[in-house]
Amino acid sequence: MAEETRQQRRARERREGVIRDPTSASPPTGEKKSIRAWQIAVGIPMGFVAVGLATLAMGPANFTVGACLAYAGIGWLLFDWWFFSKELSTRFRLVGTLGTLIIAAALIWVVFRPATLNANAFAFSSNYETGVKIAGIKWTSDYSDNRIVADNESSFQYTNLDFIV
C-alpha cells in the first residue's frame, strides 16, 4: 500500500476537521473543529436582539413581541458567555458580559420608560342647532360632542401622532 502524500494527508485532515497549529511543526492533535465558533455564538443571539429592536420600532402592535425577542437574545447571550464559552479567557468573557449588560440596560430604558402622554375623553351635552358649524363640521341632530384632550407632561416631543376617531 502506497504511503499518503502530504497533499493527501492535508485533504484528509480538512475532511475530518483536524485542527493544525500553523505556528507549530508538530503533527496535528486530532481535535475536531467546532462548528460553534464564538463569532456564531455571539451572532445568533445578537440577531435576536436586532430583530427584537426592529420589531419594537414597527409600532405598538408589535411592542411585546419585539421586547420578548430582544430579551431572549440578551438572555441567550449572557447564558452563552458563562456556560458555553469556557474556552475563552475570563477577561474576554467579562468584556462580553459587560457589553451585553449595557445593551440590556439600554433596552430596559426603552421598554420601561413611562409614556407621559395622557389622554382624557369628555362627552358634552350638545344643544347645538342643526346647520351650525362646530370645528368645521355642519351639525345635525344625530351628532354628539365628544372631545379628547392629549397632554404631554414630559420634555420629550411627540411627533407623527395619528388619531382615528
Word description of this protein:
The protein has helices spanning about 5-15, 40-55, 65-85, 90-110; strands at about 115-125, 135, 135-140, 145-150. By secondary structure, the protein is of the alpha+beta class. Among the domains are: about 40-110; about 115-150, no CATH class. Strands 1-4 form a two-stranded antiparallel sheet. Strands 2-3 form a two-stranded antiparallel ribbon. A hairpin with a 2-residue loop joins β2 and β3 (about 135-140). α2 packs antiparallel against α3 (about 65-85) and α3 runs antiparallel to α4 (about 90-110). The N and C termini lie far apart (about 85 Å). The relative contact order is 0.08. The model has no long low-confidence stretch (mean pLDDT about 80).
Write a concise keyword list for the protein shown above.
two-stranded antiparallel sheet, 165 residues, single chain, alpha+beta, 4 helices
Summary of the model, kept short:
45% of the residues lie in helices and 12% in strands.
Major sheet: order of its strands? 1-4
DSSP helix fraction: 40-55%
* Main beta-sheet strand count, sense and barrel state: 2 strands, antiparallel
Q: Which sequence of SSEs, written as H and E, runs from N to C? A: HHHHEEEE
What structural category characterises the helix and strand content? alpha+beta
Distance from N terminus to C terminus (CA atoms, Å) equals 87 Å
What gross morphology would you assign? elongated
Number of helices: 4
